[in-house]
Write a structure and sequence with these properties.
This protein is an alpha+beta fold. The chain is built from 3 helices and 8 strands. It has a single domain, classed as Alpha-Beta Plaits (2-Layer Sandwich).
């Protein structure tokens, strides 16, 4: 794989990664509690991966935890495997779909 180059779309406020001509969208992982989010982020960091903890979008939260993990879609299998390894149940994964004025979230 060639080096990953990041570009930011101004209107969508989302980073899209380009590698070997493939576009990688951002994803979010929604977990049951904030402690699970921090536990998963810590486990990923021990493996050398640093991702952001962000507020869960209102239309995704549905009264649950207010935090989620944001990461490039290419790392989805890694995040799933690490979540299973460290016993942190993930409620759902969503792909962030950039919109003109706000983002949409597509369940994966």
């Amino acid at each position: 794989m060639t080096a990953i180059v990041a570009s930011q779309q101004i209107r969508a406020h989302i980073i899209i990664f380009y590698a070997d001509g493939v576009v990688f969208m951002k994803c979010i992982a929604v977990l049951e509690t904030g402690n699970y989010v921090y536990k998963l982020e810590s486990a990923l960091e021990r493996k050398g991966l640093k991702f952001d903890i962000v507020s869960t979008p209102c239309n995704v939260a549905k009264g649950g935890c207010g935090l989620c993990l944001k990461f490039p879609e290419e790392y989805l299998p890694v995040v799933r495997n690490v979540a299973v390894e460290c016993h942190t149940p993930v409620k759902a994964f969503y792909r962030v779909v950039p919109g003109f004025t706000k983002n949409r979230y597509q369940r994966i």
